[in-house]
Design goal:
The N terminus is likely disordered. This protein is an alpha/beta fold. The protein contains 10 helices and 23 strands. A 5-stranded parallel beta sheet has the order 5-2-1-9-20, covered by helices on one side. Strands 11-18-12-13-14 form a 5-stranded parallel beta sheet. The chain is globular. Among the domains are: 150 residues, FAD/NAD(P)-binding domain; 176 residues, FAD/NAD(P)-binding domain.
């Protein structure tokens, strides 16, 4: 059994999860009593066959809200996975603060087959012009209204020279690695072992460590930096050092200036951290521990004939040696979405960023990571998508135009060290803290406490049930 590491100045060293729940007075039973809703709330008497594609957080949240909001709903869920992964916990598993078994939920606890038709399969083809989908098993499913909640796919195969079997060996780690079909989230335990292998190496010398972030949108955009800072802090607590390189396709650490500035300050807590912006991983030589990055940038070029300067896009290969590397793979929607008429030019679900309604097919809506909107690839965003989507869908079912607006809310709990988190909450307009008088860029122990101890029961008993 994996033991939780003992961290100095960390609440997790002193409180069990049960004790933390007692402190805040939130138990599963209390949660159900305080936040339970009655069937009487299902007041909308609208008709139509609703199909939900997906079995992750967004799909379950949408389903739970629809079951409470519509009288006698006709809902079909198409999702192959019996197991549901509590994804916010994966980084805590990687840091030794949770165990893999803490991440698994049973979808049968949320998909009531007495009220819902559950087809345990994947959608192979979307046919929005004919209002139907086809599953891999060959089943044609028609709908009046469609909710796409497929989430994203991890593309390790797009990194030349890398296979999934390489992760966990030769200094390679990836916290994202999981297999729903097998009911495993092996990326967390693999990365926890990687933390300890890194520490052992630092006792003998000064290892070179690379952390990557790809050139695609990713689930939980702050995860690469969380692994960087937590692993650096893990070494720091034993006065150990390494050379850290953060290689990201982005041009800065964070898009909000105040958070970006604070993250640069946080990095100064640790030994050498070199940021290599506009770098994304192209290939890896597993045997010889060499990583090849594409460095894409603009170069100022002088034209002597016209005596002018212009910006020219340039890309070059940069090869880096490493002892340890944490890889975040490129991500995209599943091929069924990418290759469908539902996708935008980049392959993401083409929905309006405010209403979450498809821009060309009015009876189609999206929720969660699959949506091609500027922000929102977090569980916190999906929670905010839920009520907007359901209200707008019901309005469309009534023959009206959708009126509810998603404000772009996203939350990124950036773990800056063991025991402290920057809770970066923002929307389309900028910072959007839940507690208005707290600055979003300051690392706080209270957010570590919340994220480690309180979020899991809230997610399990409230968020997935559409009660919060």
């Amino acid at each position: 059994m994996m033991e939780s590491c003992k961290m100095k100045d960390s609440l997790s060293s002193h409180l069990s999860r049960r004790e933390a729940l007692k402190i805040l007075g939130l138990s599963p039973i209390t949660a159900e009593l305080l936040f339970s809703h009655t069937e009487a709330e299902a007041a909308e008497d609208v008709k139509g066959k609703i199909v939900i594609v997906g079995g992750g957080a967004g799909a379950i949240m949408a389903l739970s809200r629809l079951l409470r909001s519509i009288k006698n709903p006709d809902i079909t869920v198409i999702a192959p996975n019996d197991i549901h992964i509590y994804q916010p916990g994966q980084v805590f598993v990687a840091a030794g603060e949770m165990q893999e078994r803490d991440l698994f939920l049973n979808n049968a606890d949320y998909i009531d087959t007495e009220k819902v038709n559950w087809i345990k399969d994947e959608v192979e083809r979307f046919d929005p012009k004919n209002n139907q989908v086809r599953t891999r098993g060959g089943k044609e499913v028609v709908y009046d209204y469609l909710i796409v909640a497929t989430g994203v796919v991890y593309h390790y195969e797009r990194i030349e020279g890398l296979t999934k079997e390489d992760i966990g060996k030769n200094g390679i780690s990836s916290v994202y690695l999981s297999d729903l079909a097998k009911g495993t989230a092996q990326g967390g335990p693999i990365t926890w072992r990687w933390f300890n292998d890194l520490k052992d190496a630092a006792k003998k010398g000064r290892p070179k460590v690379i952390y990557t972030q790809p050139n695609t949108p990713i689930k939980c955009g702050g995860a690469p930096q969380k692994i960087l800072m937590l692993s650096a802090d893990y070494l720091k607590q034993d006065n150990l050092a390494a050379d850290y390189y953060f290689c990201t396709a982005n041009k800065k650490l964070f898009h909000l200036p105040e958070v970006d500035a604070e993250l640069h300050k946080v990095q100064q807590r640790y030994d050498k951290i070199e940021n290599r912006f506009s770098h994304y991983l192209k290939a890896i030589d597993v045997k010889n521990k060499k990583a090849t990055f594409i460095h894409a940038y603009e170069k100022d070029v002088y034209d002597e004939d016209f005596d002018t300067h212009e910006k020219v896009s340039v890309s070059e290969n940069v090869v880096m040696d490493y002892d340890f590397i944490h890889i975040v793979p490129p991500m995209s929607p599943p091929d069924a979405v990418v290759n469908s008429e539902l996708a935008n030019d980049a392959g993401w679900l083409e929905v309006d960023k405010f209403t979450l309604q498809h821009k060309r097919f009015e009876n189609v809506f999206g929720i969660g990571d699959v949506c091609g909107i500027p922000m929102g690839k977090t569980g916190g965003s999906a929670r905010h998508h839920g009520p907007i989507l359901v209200k707008n869908l019901i309005e469309v079912m009534k023959g009206k135009k959708p009126s509810e607006k998603f404000d772009g809310y996203t939350v990124c709990p950036l773990k800056t060290q063991y025991g402290k988190i920057i809770m970066a909450e923002f929307n389309y307009k900028g910072p959007a803290p839940t507690i208005s008088f707290l600055s979003i860029e300051k690392p706080r122990w209270m957010w570590w406490f919340f994220d480690l101890y309180m979020l899991e029961p809230m997610y399990k008993y409230l968020m997935l049930r559409g009660l919060f």
